[in-house]
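Sharing a chain and its predicted structure for anyone who wants a worked example. Both blocks are below, sequence first, tokens second.
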Amino acid sequence: MNPEKLAKLQSQIRTGGKGTPRRKVRATKPVTKEDPKISSTLRQLNAQPIADVEVINMFREDGRVIGFNAPRLNANIHANTFVIAGKPEEKSPEQALSEMFSRMGSFGPESLSQLAKLTEGFQADASGAGDVDDDIPDLVESGEGAADGKTDLNATD
């Protein structure tokens, strides 16, 4: 085709003009509809949503950390059941700990010292839990005196 003829045809074609309605631009929003099977399972578990959770870090046995930023958390604390929904990120332990300390830094350095004291207290409790004899009181009377008839249960005053 001749370029001059093509340019002439393009100038004649109008997709809009006076009297034509404007197109409405529709913004596409991501649909965050919850799966009905998941919601029914959460209802069966009696899991309640827990709000205001910013970050969840799960430490794996191989040393990696799975982190969730702004997750949806549902929990049934009595059944020890937690449901975490969100986009996971795999992190190194150093990165996860640095993020945790930066978040705790807003509470001040005294909170870190209190945390160290708490962990020392828990470690001391765990080491002292093996000594069961401290919890059992000593007997005041032995049962031998009752067998000899020294105590008279049928006597009236």
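Comments welcome. The longest strand covers residues 55-59.
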